[in-house]
Every structure is written in structure tokens, then in C-alpha cells.
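Take a look at this chain, C-alpha cells included, and explain the fold to me:
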Amino acid sequence: MDNQNKLRVTQEYEKLNDELKEQIKLVYPEGYSQHIFSFTNKEGGKTSALRFETDEKIYLIRMSITEAENLIAEDDDYDDDGNLRDDVRDDYEDKHADADYLSDNDNYDG
């Protein structure tokens, strides 16, 4: 599916299902904060988000750089340096091996 035709969804990280969160971790194994960007929402306000793409949707996951850093710091899947632990990465890669769209995300190196 062409990016132009994909549904764009703005969502809070906390409201995402666990499967999407695991896939996002595979795309951003070194954390989220350096991938946050700002945009103007449909109400004309400035907001910041992390981008994640699936076959049908482009998610703009609302979060600030500080929120992104806190998410990683509090997540046991990441080590003290803010990197996805190797055992977790291996587990998630096996679990989501059929998610071909992961490679559509610029940061994915699986």
C-alpha cells in the first residue's frame, strides 16, 4: 500500500496494544527520544510524536522527548544504557517475524 493512502493515526503510547509496543521497540532499539519530531496537528497546535508504520496505518505516537526518555528508563526491556536487551530483541524478532512492514520503517535494521 502506498504511503499516501495509508490512514494516519495519532495515538498515545499507553493506549497501544502490547504487540505494537513490541514492534516499536524492534524499530527503535536504542530508544525513542532521538526520533521524536514536531508537527502541527489538525487543530493547528504544535505537538511532538514518534512515527511508526504498519501495512495499513502510519502511527504518530504522541510523546515529548522527556516522556520518551522516561518510557525507556522505566522499561525493563531496555538496559541501563537505554538499549533494547539482546534477549528481548531475539524474542520479539521471533514473535513478530511475519510482520513484513517492520522493514518499511526507516530505523529498522532486522
Observations:
- The longest helix spans residues 18-27.
- The mean pLDDT is 92.
- The first strand starts at residue 7 and ends at 12.
- The helical segments are 18-27, 65-74, 86-95.
